[in-house]
Amino acid sequence: MRVPALIFFGLAWGVFVPLAHTLSFAPGQGWFDVLPQFGYGSVGGWTALLVYVVLLAVAMHLRWRSGVWQRIRL
After folding, report:
1. What is the pLDDT of residues 51-66, one digit of tens each?
2. In this structure, what are the phi and psi dihedrals at residue 33, rounded to the nearest 5 degrees?
3. Phi-psi region of 14 (alpha: psi -120 to 50; beta: other; left: phi over 0)
4. Smallest Cα–Cα separation from 20: which of 31, 28, 9?
5. How far apart, in whole angstroms, are the C-alpha atoms of residue 7 and residue 28?
């Protein structure tokens, strides 16, 4: 249970939040000036969510295929 949670939080804070900020806000309107801002609005946010969900699905699929989860003691 620990590894899926780490994958979830790592992708959420490392990919989704910065990507949603980058794609959603127009230049000069975001919270962080360090990140580039493209200004796609809600389409950018939904695109960031799509990328996040696909990456999460790939990571969880790879975790499942590895078979490590079968050795977890409940």
Report:
1. 999 999 999 999 999 9
2. -80, -10
3. alpha
4. 31
5. 31
